[in-house]
Each structure stands twice: as C-alpha cells, then as structure tokens.
Design goal:
By secondary structure, this protein is an alpha+beta fold. Helix content is 62%, strand content 13%. The radius of gyration is 19 Å and the shape is elongated. The mean pLDDT is 88.
Length: 104
C-alpha cells in the first residue's frame, strides 16, 4: 500500500521519530544498565561511573532523557527538511505487509 501527500504533520513526524530513535536509545541505555549490574563501567553521569544496581537505576532516566533529546533534535531538523521538500515534491510512504480491505 502506498500513500502520497504534500507534507507530513509535525505530530506524526515526532511520533515516528520517537518510536524509532527514542525507543532505540532507551533500549540501548537499559542494556548498558544491565551490563553495569555485572561490574562494567558502561553508565557514566556527571563524570562518575555507576556500577551495580545504581548503574541500572541511573540508566533508566538517562535513557529517557537521551531518547527525548535526540528525538527532539532530529524532529527539528526533519521539519526543516520536509518544509524544503514540500516546495519541490510531495512525500510518498510505502507500507509493507498491509492487506488492503475493500469498502473502507
């Protein structure tokens, strides 16, 4: 299924980026927190390494903050890019694995 539009709404772009970049960074930070449980110095905050249970507990809000920060940064750049793109051509999104239903 293919959808073409002149532009994507800012809210839809933010949701798409947060679900890809934000969730990915949060999962990575939780993974680093799990490594810190085993003594690895993978979680650092304020120039101090955290290991053990404190490393896992620090990685959770750090992952949320990093996910939101990077998502917002990429969202702002994406808005600018899509605004420039809307003057030249539209946006086409192709969905895979979608069954088209007749009558909707």
């Amino acid at each position: 299924m293919e959808i073409s539009a002149k532009n994507i709404s800012k809210k839809s772009l933010f949701k798409l980026l947060f679900q890809s970049i934000g969730y990915g960074l949060m999962a990575f930070c939780v993974l680093m927190g799990i490594f810190s449980l085993f003594g690895f110095e993978t979680v650092a905050f304020n120039e101090q390494y955290y290991t053990g249970i404190s490393g896992l507990l620090v990685s959770l809000p750090l992952g949320l903050f990093m996910g939101l920060l990077f998502t917002c940064f990429m969202w702002l750049i994406g808005i600018l890019g899509l605004w420039i793109n809307s003057y030249f051509k539209g946006v086409t999104i192709v969905f895979k694995g979608v069954s088209e239903q007749v009558g909707e």
